[in-house]
């Protein structure tokens, strides 16, 4: 009698795995505010300012670009619906498998740019107020 065959593990494609939490790719974010406007829970807050674009070709009229100052998700309000990820026109928001972990207070469930930044290692996001010093 032959041994049972184990099904091969299938790695999900990037962005299609478990919806644990969301990370922000700042280099792709244009501060367009679409995610904040489309979020049904109003749990995304964004602040930005404009700066002139440097090093434009001679003779080009002055142009400005948005510079991100603040980006945060309040996980105590988030429904994990994924609308922000789907609506971002620049793929600056991505699902990651790591879940947002418990925090000591509701305030600590609002994660800013540091907590939303892509992490190279696995594991949960650092907990503000609880994991001081974690990258
Ligand atoms: S997953 Fe849904 S509720 Fe959560 S931040 Fe995105 S749009 Fe808002
Ligand atoms: S929709 Fe995307 S590019 Fe626009 S502010 Fe949100 S994360 Fe940034």
Please, could you describe this protein's structure?
With 135 residues, the chain is of the alpha+beta class. It has a domain at 21-53 and 63-116: Alpha-Beta Plaits (2-Layer Sandwich), CATH 3.30.70. It has helices spanning 34-38, 83-87, 113-116, and strands spanning 21-24, 44-52, 64-74, 93-96, 110-111. The strands form 2 sheets. A 3-stranded antiparallel beta sheet has the order 2-3-5. One iron/sulfur cluster binds next to helix 1.
Quick gist of this model?
With 135 residues, this protein is α+β, with helices and mostly antiparallel strands. It is built from 3 helices and 5 strands; from the N terminus they run βαββαββα. The strands form 2 sheets. It has a 3-stranded antiparallel beta sheet. It has a two-stranded antiparallel ribbon with strand order 1-4.
User: What are the distinct ligands in this entry?
Assistant: iron/sulfur cluster
H and E string:
EHEEHEEH
Strand order of the largest sheet: 2-3-5
Number of helices: 3
Biggest β-sheet description: 3 strands, antiparallel
Helix/strand-derived class?
alpha+beta
- Enumerate the spans where pLDDT stays under 50 for 5 or more consecutive residues: 121-135
Radius of gyration: 19 Å
Defining key terms:
binds iron/sulfur cluster; Alpha-Beta Plaits; single chain; alpha+beta; disordered C terminus
Secondary structure elements and pairings:
Blueprint lengths: L20 E4 L9 H5 L5 E9 L11 E11 L8 H5 L5 E4 L13 E2 L1 H4 L19
Antiparallel strand pairs: 1-4, 2-3, 3-5
């Amino acid at each position: 009698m032959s041994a049972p065959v184990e099904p091969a593990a299938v790695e999900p494609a990037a962005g299609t795995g478990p919806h644990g939490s969301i990370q922000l790719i700042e280099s792709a974010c244009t501060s367009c505010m679409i995610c904040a406007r489309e979020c049904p829970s109003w749990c995304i807050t964004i602040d930005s300012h404009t700066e002139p674009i440097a090093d434009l070709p001679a003779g080009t009229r002055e142009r400005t670009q948005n510079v991100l100052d603040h980006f945060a998700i309040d996980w105590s309000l988030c429904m994990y619906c994924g609308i922000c990820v789907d609506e971002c026109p620049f793929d600056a928001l991505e699902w990651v498998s790591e879940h947002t972990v418990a925090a000591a207070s509701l305030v600590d469930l609002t994660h800013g740019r540091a907590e939303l930044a892509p992490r190279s290692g696995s594991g949960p996001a650092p907990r503000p107020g609880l994991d001081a010093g974690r990258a």
